[in-house]
Design a protein that fits this description.
Elements (H helix, E strand, L loop, with lengths): L7 H11 L4 E3 L5 E3 L20 E4 L2 H10 L3 E2 L9 E7 L5 E7 L8
Parallel strand pairs: 3-6
Antiparallel strand pairs: 1-2, 4-5, 5-6
């Protein structure tokens, strides 16, 4: 996965230090960050190409509170979408990263 950012260094530091993703320096401060295990879902759309990234958590209120104490800002409150309870993290570079508590079976439930 590649995130494009107008402030890549700030977003790298945020992912490493605030979200506490393990990282290695590939040279010159270029961080490669380890993501948690992942799932992929394919949704129908009028056109192809759009992608979204969501981190999955067990308890959205606990995660939002913990991240808020670390200075993370969110674009609005947690919402209830039926399939899950998402929130949107605002990255330092201006991008957005989803986080949600799943209300559907996950691949990890197997």
């Amino acid at each position: 996965m590649i995130l494009y950012s107008s402030d890549a260094e700030a977003d790298r530091v945020f992912l490493r230090d605030v979200l506490e993703l393990p990282a290695v320096d590939a040279g010159g401060g270029w961080l490669i960050l380890q993501l948690p295990p992942a799932e992929v879902a394919v949704h129908p759309a009028e056109s192809s190409g759009a992608t979204e990234l969501y981190l999955v958590c067990d308890d959205i209120e606990e995660s939002v509170a913990d991240l808020g104490q670390r200075g993370v800002t969110f674009d609005g409150p947690v919402s209830d979408q039926g399939w899950g309870r998402p929130a949107t993290i605002r990255l330092p570079g201006g991008g957005r990263l989803g986080i949600y508590e799943a209300r559907h079976p996950t691949a990890f439930d197997r």
